[in-house]
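batch_manifest entry 22 of 60
target: Nitrogen fixation protein NifU
source organism: Edaphobacillus lindanitolerans
requested by: lab member K.T.
priority: normal
notes from requester: please return tokens only, no post-processing; we will run our own comparison against the previous entry in this batch. if the run fails, retry once and flag.
--- input ---
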Amino acid sequence: MSFNNLDQLYRRVIMDHYKNPRNKGEIEDGSLTIDMNNPTCGDRIHLTLNVEDGTVTDAKFDGEGCSISMASASMMTQAIKGKKVEDALKLSETFSNMMLGKEHDDSIDMGDIEALSGVSQFPARIKCATLAWKAMEKGVASDSNPN
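--- output ---
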């Protein structure tokens, strides 16, 4: 597949998640609630997670922001549901490295998340793409350290 065709495919995947977000809403009695924003562009995320016995059993988000921010939140909630917390964090680390153009574990199946790989070429948009992931990291860290 040519680069141009791949770029168009990735754009379609991003727009599909933006226009038809997966896991949009809020978990009633969600065990973890995290609110974060990106003050430089106004993106805002409200993430709710259920974590039981070290596994993310449910994840939902609400918020407002650019297509990259909201598509990334949709992809992230899809990707972490059913995963052990440590696997969700490993996926987040891999995603962050991909966004920063660093070496990352290519053996991890990124699924639709791979469509965001081109964001790394636009430094101002990296915070948009990583906002939901940072919220998830903050949430599971607070769950393991309830001080």
